[in-house]
UniProtKB/TrEMBL annotation:
Name under which the protein is recorded: L-serine ammonia-lyase
Gene3D superfamilies on file: 3.40.50.1100
Organism encoding this protein: Lachancea mirantina
Coiled-coil residues: none
Record-linked Pfam families: PALP
CC per GO annotation: cytoplasm
Cross-referenced PROSITE patterns: DEHYDRATASE_SER_THR
Cofactors (names): pyridoxal 5'-phosphate
Keywords: Cytoplasm, Gluconeogenesis, Lyase, Pyridoxal phosphate
Position of the signal peptide: none
């Protein structure tokens, strides 16, 4: 089911005084993103808690992004049917990927909110009337999903130990943040290992989708009226309550980048490592190339003894040509 993904040391062209950067490759999960961890765990727990209803269970998702693909992939692995409602803005390439996993895709609404409401208020209600047991998979805001994502931390600590690196050397974990699902999973994992107080999380967002940064500045959760970023996978109008409270409790660091910063990093990473990721993943990778941002965020000097783990969250719906199309006009 869930793969133990590689944790690889990367130089990123740094000088010898920079921290040691490791990248966790979640693009190698079955659905090509970290989303598979939490969603497959969620479905597995639903099956084990209500085995008598398994024959009537059907998976329902409203994401036209990586969560929808993860729901379809996980449902297929459990031999379950899956319906995914996506908004009209969903890329044809992603619809085809979801359908390839055996899911039924319905297109409805102008945005995720419209698609989600239609799924819950119409499609799932009709399913109940037919005697089915709808299993609703939220893209990010569910404790079981965070529990599944938390296995990333288990793996990171094990893999560092296998390289004789003590957990005390782990100076920080960098992750991209949209609605806070991955962030919440990392918090859960650190808490389980007693490291939440000592290992800071650096949350990276893009301008136009920086709901965590705005919430932390406001001292309360805010909701974005408009999402405007090329990193569409980070485009959540709100932040999960647990993510917000955890960021405040543990003093998580917030970094906000421009669209061009993440796109240029994603292109550079593709050129150097022959791996194409989405801009949402490029947001975290950007700090691998620019460790000074990490040091500034942590308010301390970093040395090669300090380990910074960058979670390359993945994503499978981007081409090199599309990344190039994001270049500002006139830029070579």
């Amino acid at each position: 089911m869930v793969y133990q993904t590689p944790l690889l040391k990367h130089e990123f062209g740094h000088q010898s005084k920079s921290p040691t950067i490791y990248v966790k490759y979640e693009s190698l999960q079955p659905s090509r993103s970290f989303k598979f961890r939490g969603i497959s765990h969620f479905i597995e727990r639903a099956i084990s808690s209500k085995p008598i209803l398994v024959d009537t269970m059907k998976v329902y998702s409203s994401s036209g992004g990586n969560a929808g693909l993860a729901a379809a992939t996980a449902a297929k692995s459990f031999g379950m049917e899956c319906i995914v409602v996506v908004p009209k803005t969903t890329k044809l390439r992603m619809i085809q990927k979801i359908e390839k996993e055996g899911a039924t895709v319905l297109v409805h609404g102008e945005n995720w909110g419209h698609a989600d409401t239609y799924l819950r208020e119409t499609i799932m209600k009709e399913a109940k009337l037919k005697g089915l047991t709808p299993l609703y998979v939220h893209p990010f805001d569910n404790e079981l999903i965070w529990e599944g994502h938390s296995s990333i931390v288990d793996e990171v600590l094990l893999q560092l130990k296998q390289e004789n690196i003590p957990s005390e050397n782990l100076a920080g974990i960098v992750c991209s943040v949209g609605g806070g699902g991955l962030f919440s999973g990392i918090v859960k994992g650190l808490e389980r290992h007693g490291l939440a107080e000592s290992v800071p999380i650096i949350a990276v967002e893009t301008e136009g989708s920086d709901v965590m940064a705005k919430s932390l500045r406001a001292g309360e959760r805010v909701e974005l009226n408009k999402i405007s970023t090329v990193a569409s996978s980070l485009g959540s109008p709100y932040l999960a309550e647990f993510a917000y409270q955890s960021a405040r409790k543990y003093g998580s660091k917030s970094v906000v980048l421009s669209d061009w910063e993440v796109v240029s990093t994603t292109l550079k990473f593709a050129d150097e490592f022959n791996i194409i990721t989405e801009p949402a993943c490029g947001a975290s990778l950007h700090l691998g190339y620019y460790p000074d941002i990490v040091a500034t965020s942590l308010e301390r000097n970093l040395t090669p003894k300090d380990i910074i783990v960058v979670i390359a969250c993945g994503g499978s719906c981007m081409s090199y040509e599309e990344l190039l199309s994001f270049k500002p006009a006139g830029m070579v």
